[in-house]
């Protein structure tokens, strides 16, 4: 019977942690197990950011970081606020620069071109314009 290879190899964990990681052997083994679970949860190559965030959180839990939940909740609140502010700014720019009826994939004044550049749906841009 052969051992099934781990999704995340030990050398990858060691490289990610560096030399002065502060984990004893038991916690290091637990982090390796969590890394495998994280890799199974977010297997897609496009989910690298999610895997890194989850692994960082697992590491912080194993270090016994105080107030981790509150810290992460505050980070999430800041991120949500930043998204709200960015969308408000994009909406204002759309209202001021997009011309309804202008067509063409390469025309920067068209709703579709603005939507692609802004990373939102064309229908979102049209909704912003209709509301004003």
Summed up:
This protein has 132 residues and is mainly alpha-helical. The chain has two domains: 10-65, no CATH class; 75-130, no CATH class.
Task: Describe it.
It is a single chain. This protein is mostly helical and 132 residues long. It folds into two domains: 10-65, no CATH class; 75-130, no CATH class. The chain is 67% helix and 0% strand. The protein has helices at residues 10-17, 25-41, 48-63, 68-97, 111-118, 122-130. Helix 2 (25-41) packs antiparallel against helix 3 and helix 5 (111-118) crosses helix 6. 11% of the residues are buried.
Low-confidence stretches: none
Number of domains: 2
Look at the helices and sheets and give the structural class. mainly alpha
Give the helix proportion (percent range): 55-70%
Q: What is the count of DSSP helices, taking H or I runs of 4+ residues?
A: 6
Distance between the termini: 68 Å
Q: Strand-residue fraction?
A: under 5%
Q: N-to-C SSE series?
A: HHHHHH
Major sheet details: none
Tally of strands: 0
Q: Which word captures the global form?
A: elongated
Rg of Cα set: 22 Å
Question: What's the average pLDDT?
Answer: 90
